[in-house]
Amino acid sequence: MTDPTPLDTTHAAIQSAPDDAALRLRFFERLADSELFLLLEAEAQGDSIKPEVFEVDGAKYVLVFDREERLAEFVEGAAHHATLSGRVAARMLAGQGIGLAVNLGVAPSSILIPADAMAWLGDMLDETPDEIRARPIVFSAPAGIPETLLTALDAKLAIAAGLAKTACLVGVEYEGGDRGHMLAIIDALPEAEGALAKAVGEAVSFSGFEAPLDVAFFAGDDPLCATLQKTGLRFDLPEKKPATHSPAAPGRDPENPPILR
């Protein structure tokens, strides 16, 4: 028996507690971050793809699998497919009235996600954080942070390999008296700051945490970093693995989802 995938694990959790909204949010977050294999009718043509579309009870779905061997098991052999993330799939299906069939009939996480749920996911993923300017004056240990948010942050930062060195979660008081929590990200690549802030925003949204979590960026030689690392809860981001060059393929660029034809 093969090891369960993150989708298997989170799907099992919602099966055991179907009324738990927090578990459903966690499943959709894992879906958005998962690499998926989309079944195609024919080989992709540039940025254009033609997925296999199935009807179930009058609703249309495209089929994705979170392991290539699961796709092969479904079709009983080899098949044309495209590799894309769940977030790209949500953007690709926006306005199409098509749902997502995940691991259909070949895994514990077999599920039909209707078009309106995929539209909701796309809207969640399109949210962008607001940029504000405020001067922090006091840092403290974080308090009252639920385990669901800590788990979500740890998962998001783990897939942000090479984009920063560390992050520290702290309580913060700003000039003017406002208080809250901040994730201080240290030595981030300048071009990655927007993506990191958005990833943290997604972690907050999908964890169900209702209070805001500010994100700030610090250079490693900033004197405040010593205080942040002494006071806060530290997350170490993994180093980026050396990339092997491969041609661009539909679904690889999250900013440019493939075009349906």
The gist of it:
This protein has 261 residues and is α+β, with helices and mostly antiparallel strands. It has two domains: 121 residues, 3-Layer(aba) Sandwich (Trna Endonuclease, Chain: A, domain 1); 101 residues, Alpha-Beta Plaits (2-Layer Sandwich), CATH 3.30.70. It is built from eight helices and 13 strands.
Features:
261 residues, 5-stranded mixed beta sheet, 6-stranded mixed beta sheet, alpha+beta, Trna Endonuclease, Chain: A, domain 1, 2 domains, Alpha-Beta Plaits, 13 strands, 8 helices
Q: Can you describe what's shown?
A:
By secondary structure, the protein is an alpha+beta fold. The protein folds into 2 domains: 6-126, Uncharacterised protein PF11572, DUF3234 (Trna Endonuclease, Chain: A, domain 1); 136-236, 2-Layer Sandwich (Alpha-Beta Plaits), CATH 3.30.70. 33% of the residues lie in helices and 25% in strands. The chain contains 8 helices and 13 strands. The chain has helices at 6-16, 21-33, 68-75, 86-92, 115-126, 147-158, 193-207, 224-231, and strands spanning 35-39, 48-49, 53-56, 59-65, 81-85, 99-102, 111-113, 136-140, 166-174, 179-186, 213-218, 233-236, 259-260. The strands form 3 sheets. Strands 1, 3, 4, 5, 6 and 7 form a 6-stranded mixed sheet that branches. Strand 9 (166-174) and strand 10 (179-186) form a beta hairpin. The longest helix has 15 residues, at 193-207. The two termini are 37 Å apart. The mean pLDDT is 90.
